[in-house]
Amino acid sequence: MSDEQQKIKKLALNIKKNPNDSFSKFALALELLKREQVTKAILLFESILKQEPGYLGVYYHLGKLYQQTGNVKKAGELFTKGIQLAEEKNNSRTKSELSEAMETLKIETDYDS
Q1: Alpha helices in the chain (DSSP H)
Q2: Whether the Cβ atoms of residue 49 and residue 63 lie closer than 8 Å to each other
Q3: Chain centroid to CA 42: how far?
Q4: Is 107:79 a contact under the CB 8 Å cutoff?
Q5: Which of 55, 25, 54, 18 is nearest to 42 (CA)?
Q6: From CA 1, how far away is CA 73, in angstroms rounded?
């Protein structure tokens, strides 16, 4: 079994033991993205967002996946919520990343909030 497979197995086991472990879900989603398992990654990110809406890192990654899969409206909504949340948490780095993602979305898709 490769290191990646072991990592995925370990993270999945962590989640099985503790279904509310947002960190393990986030890490597993990123590992799955490396293997181009987009649908599974989206489900994990959505699960995190549902159980822990303040988990700031999810907004960028899930928004980009929505954009990638053609769900432009959801991507824009997520980036907007993430920017507001980052502002509330005084997280200028994440706010900047989400703002850039929003600008890219607008340029690439003619998205207009």
Answers
A1: 3-17, 22-34, 38-51, 57-68, 72-88, 92-109
A2: no
A3: 7
A4: no
A5: 25
A6: 40
Instruction: Provide the residue-wise pLDDT of the chain in tens; the chain has 113 residues.
Output: 788 889 999 999 999 999 999 999 999 999 999 999 999 999 999 999 999 999 999 999 999 999 999 999 999 999 999 999 999 999 999 999 999 999 999 999 887 76
Listed in sequence order, the residues at least 6 apart from 27 whose beta carbon sits closer than 8 Å to its beta carbon are 11
| Tokens 């949340």 belong to residue | 85
Instruction: Return contacts of 57-66, CB within 8 angstroms, 24+ apart.
Output: 57/26, 57/94, 58/26, 59/85, 59/86, 59/94, 59/98, 60/94, 60/97, 60/98, 60/101, 61/29, 61/30, 61/33, 63/98, 63/101, 63/105, 64/101, 65/33, 65/38, 65/41, 66/42
> How many C-beta neighbours within 10 Å does residue 36 have?
8
